[in-house]
User: What shape does this take?
Amino acid sequence: MRKQIQASLVLMTALSLSAVADEATPQPRRDTAEHYTIDSTRTVVSFEVRSFGTFKHRGLFRNSSGSVSLDPQADAGTFNVVIDARSVQAGNDTELRIMRGAGFLNVEKFPEISYNAEHVSFYDGEPIRVEGELTLRGVTRSVPLMVSGYYCAPSVDWNPRRCMMDATAIFRRSLFGMTGSTPLAGDKVRLAIHAEATADAIDGTPGTTKKTAVGEN
Assistant: This one.
């Protein structure tokens, strides 16, 4: 009987040590992010430059694409946008020619503008700041975006969940080699992104967002 009791105690001790070891083993972090694809037909990227410190020159890009992931629980997310610089639109033909030219966007040599962010900060469950890099005219620099508007509409029936985000940034164009028309036109550029995105489907089911675990295929 004594040997049986000792064997049971040894077995219980081994099981306890095994459980402790399992708890101590690092587990894959669950990715609770919601993933979206930017709707290029409803996303607008615009900019504004002042001349003589008073007059505003505005323009916009008609073609853009990208993706977004949002994870309020982890205070994390991504925001990636690719802009076709050749789709720029301006107030008149003269302004458009200047914007497309070598002194500004130089669209023939640099047809693509991109913004890539690997971190999104949240407050009370909503994004408030995006930390990313802007690549313009082949130059990449850190340019944070401040979120001024955010809204998500729930999925209804087979219509997927959609989200909208407005974000703005101010940067100096000279840092990207954009020195045309200085000093007549100001150095500061106000960039505004109105992005609308649709939730990525899981197994072909609209309205649900893709969630994966780190390390899973």
User: Anything to note?
Assistant: Confidence is low (pLDDT under 50) at residues 204-217. The two ends are 52 Å apart (CA to CA). DSSP finds two helices and twelve strands in the chain. The longest strand covers residues 185-199.
